[in-house]
Amino acid sequence: MEQILVQIPEKLLRALDRVAPSKSRLRSRFIRLAIQRAIMDLQDLETRDAYVRAPDDEPAWFDARTWDEWTPTAVRKGTRKRR
């Protein structure tokens, strides 16, 4: 695992101390999760922008409503074992 040194303004440090105090092990985890979330948010924006530039106008090749009808435990007609 790599380490990085990041300088942040005093006001941001105080806010960080309120949610993840430096004496707890939560701070590193909090910062890692915040970075992951920020990266995912940026990727979501990139995906949204890509769809705006080139929308998917083709109709779906399947009817999504059929997924609502299926459940893993459903017994379908003709699938029961015969004794």
Write structural notes for this entry.
The chain is 52% helix and 0% strand. The protein has 83 residues and is mainly α. The chain has a domain of 45 residues.
Report the major sheet.
none
Count of discrete alpha- or pi-helical segments spanning 4 or more residues? 3
Instruction: Give the integer mean of the pLDDT values.
Output: 83
Percent in strands? under 5%
Radius of gyration based on Cα positions: 24 Å
What is the end-to-end distance? 59 Å
Total count of strands: 0
Based on CA inertia axes, which overall geometry fits?
elongated
Give helix and strand order, one letter per element, not per position: HHH
The computed structural class is mainly alpha
**Which spans of ≥5 residues are poorly predicted at pLDDT below 50?**
none
Task: Indicate the percent of residues in helices.
Answer: 40-55%
Q: In summary, what is this structure?
A:
The protein is an all-alpha fold and 83 residues long. The chain is 52% helix and 0% strand.
